[in-house]
Every structure is written in structure tokens, then in C-alpha cells.
């Protein structure tokens, strides 16, 4: 396991132990970075207009299309670290 993979795995644990719940936009960023880092570019079809949360998640992940997995993992780790320090919400 590479160093970024270890940090990514630790950040996944750390995010569940944050002192306060991040805001919705931050949660979308976390979701998109996690998916891009784990699975790569977006897969599947965009959810219909009745699935509002699914649509926002799809769009957030789609915005990262083409981002290398290791870069997405690094950005996820950085975001979790800033949340742990209380710098982002």
C-alpha cells in the first residue's frame, strides 16, 4: 500500500470522527473526491429530476472527471485534515 493510499484510508476513518458535521457543500466535495479517488471517472447515468440528492452527488463527481485518482485522494486527505482542525465547514 502506497503512502497516499494509507493516508486516504486513515482520512476515511477520521471523517467519521469529526467533532461536528460538515455543511452540505463540503459533504458533496468529500463524496466526489472519495468516489474519484476510489473508482475514477463518473459511471452510470445522471439520476432523474426526482432524485435531487443523487443529482447533486452525480454532478459533484462529474466535475472531477479526468482528475487522477491519487490527486483526488490527496485532496480528500487535505480536506479531512482541514475539517479536523476546524478550518473548513
Strand percentage lies at under 5%
The CATH architecture can be named as: Up-down Bundle
Largest sheet: none
Taken from the alpha-carbon principal axes, the silhouette is globular
Low-confidence parts, pLDDT < 50 over ≥5 residues?
Answer: none
| Structure classification | mainly alpha
Order of secondary-structure elements:
HHHH
Total domain units: 1
Query: Percent of residues in helical segments?
Result: 55-70%
Number of helices: 4
Radius of gyration: 13 Å
State the distance separating the first and last CA atoms.
Answer: 30 Å
Let me know the average pLDDT: 95
Task: Describe the secondary-structure layout.
Elements lengths: L2 H13 L8 H16 L12 H11 L6 H16 L5
Structural overview:
The protein has 89 residues and is mainly α. The chain has one domain (3-84): Acyl-CoA Binding Protein. 63% of the residues lie in helices and 0% in strands. The chain contains four helices and no strands. The chain has helices spanning 3-15, 24-39, 52-62, 69-84. α2 runs antiparallel to α4. The longest helix has 16 residues, at 24-39. The radius of gyration is 13 Å and the shape is globular. The mean pLDDT is 95.
Brief overview, please?
The protein contains four helices and no strands. Helix content is 63%, strand content 0%.
Keywords, separated by commas or semicolons:
single chain, Acyl-CoA Binding Protein, 89 residues, mainly alpha
Amino acid at each position: 500500500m502506497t503512502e497516499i493510499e494509507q493516508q486516504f484510508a486513515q482520512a476515511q476513518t477520521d471523517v467519521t470522527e469529526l467533532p461536528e458535521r460538515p455543511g452540505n457543500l463540503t459533504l458533496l466535495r468529500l463524496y466526489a473526491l472519495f468516489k474519484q479517488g476510489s473508482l475514477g471517472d463518473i459511471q452510470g447515468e445522471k439520476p432523474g429530476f426526482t432524485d435531487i440528492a443523487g443529482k447533486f452527488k452525480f454532478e459533484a463527481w462529474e466535475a472531477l472527471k479526468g482528475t487522477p485518482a491519487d490527486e483526488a485522494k490527496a485532496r480528500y486527505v487535505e480536506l479531512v485534515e482541514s475539517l479536523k482542525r476546524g478550518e473548513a465547514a
